[in-house]
Write a structure and sequence with these properties.
Heat Shock Protein 90, 21% strand, Arc Repressor Mutant, subunit A, 6-stranded mixed β-sheet, single chain, 3-stranded antiparallel β-sheet, alpha+beta
């Protein structure tokens, strides 16, 4: 039995009203936290690193022409005693870290149209490649007379925030990918690791407080203009969807954070009751009253009136007559 195992048998922590034993990984995190050291600040096991992607971004975004070890020291990625740290490894052209797994689904999760994984490369490269895949599926051009108009099914600004958030706030000491699930009506982004210590779910979701898990990595993203340093990502996503019919959702668990970005559709001044009906139709497309009623709590008469009001607002279309009547998003 080694020393760490012996200590683990005696180490416990408080979790609400229960006392639970701490596992090896969490023990390591607690030791680092006690010393005020973060995983990204530890020496990287790879010390033969190159930074062409980082250098290119610094030159393009903020016109830094000179790139050397002094540049890396300024960014808190290198010091003469320990060499490159894990934050440097994450930004290096090649590394040993996990990355991001994207799956584009068809009509259901049994139909996979595309799957691609970006890993063992710079987080800056992962960020840009994720955006490229996003644009393939959620942006298109409409030609109006002599003009071309870019249409976004999901706002790119919101997706940028979600991906940057996942990259700079996740835990990097577990071999797990950030998961991006793309559907026709939404995108789900799940990043490994719950909230860092010192912040509650309410504080995180309301934007009242921000605790940077990877401050050096966040600093680089901030300098390049990809994020706001004060952790306003969730607030910005909410603002982007302020006029939308269906809002983004956020779920925090002990080991993961999920952000769901729905297709952006204007709310057309819908009431709260109408939004509930709209949300059901958005997920279920063309439906009859008998198919809608069991899932809506208002009763058949009120639901019928809500649907007629929504038709007058130009939000839905009513097709057919009598028992054959069906409703769909316009």
């Amino acid at each position: 039995m080694n020393k760490v195992t012996s200590v683990l048998r005696l180490l416990y922590k408080r979790n609400d009203t229960a006392t639970i034993e701490v596992d090896t990984l969490e023990f390591s995190r607690l030791v680092l936290e006690g010393k005020n050291i973060r995983f990204e600040e530890l020496p990287c096991k790879d010390q033969e690193l190159s930074f062409k992607i980082l250098q290119s971004n610094l030159k393009e975004k903020i016109q830094i022409e000179t790139f050397n070890k002094d540049t890396l020291k300024t960014l808190n990625l290198y010091d003469d005693v320990n060499g490159f740290n894990n934050a440097a490894g994450l930004l290096a052209d090649k590394n040993h870290f996990p990355g991001l797994d994207i799956v584009k689904f068809g009509e259901n999760i049994s139909i996979i149209q595309k799957r691609i994984t970006f890993e063992n490369t710079s987080v800056l490269d992962i960020y840009e490649k994720a955006l490229s895949v996003f644009r393939d599926y959620y942006q298109y051009e409409v030609i109006q007379a002599a003009d071309r108009k870019m249409v976004e099914k999901i706002p790119e600004a919101a997706f940028r925030e979600a991906i940057a958030n996942a990259l700079i706030h996740r835990v990097w000491d577990v071999d797990s990918q950030i998961r991006v699930s793309m559907f026709d009506d939404r995108i789900e982004v799940v990043s490994p690791g719950g909230l860092p210590s010192g912040i509650t779910e309410d504080e995180y979701l309301s934007g009242k407080l921000s605790v940077l898990r990877n401050r050096n990595l966040a600093n680089v993203f901030y300098r390049l203009g990809f994020v706001e340093i004060f952790g306003t990502g969730i607030t910005r996503i909410k603002q982007i969807y302020s006029e939308a019919s269906v809002k983004p959702s956020f779920e925090v668990s002990e080991n993961a954070i999920q952000i769901v970005l729905p297709i952006y559709e204007e709310n057309a001044n819908l009431t709260e009751d109408e939004k509930a009906v709209y949300k059901f139709l958005r997920k279920n497309m063309l439906k009859s009253m008998s198919e809608i009623a069991p899932y809506i709590s208002f009763g058949k008469s009120k639901t019928t009136k809500l649907l007629k009001d929504m038709e007058q607002k130009g939000v839905i279309t009513i097709e057919g007559k009598g028992k054959g009547t069906k409703y769909r998003i316009k």
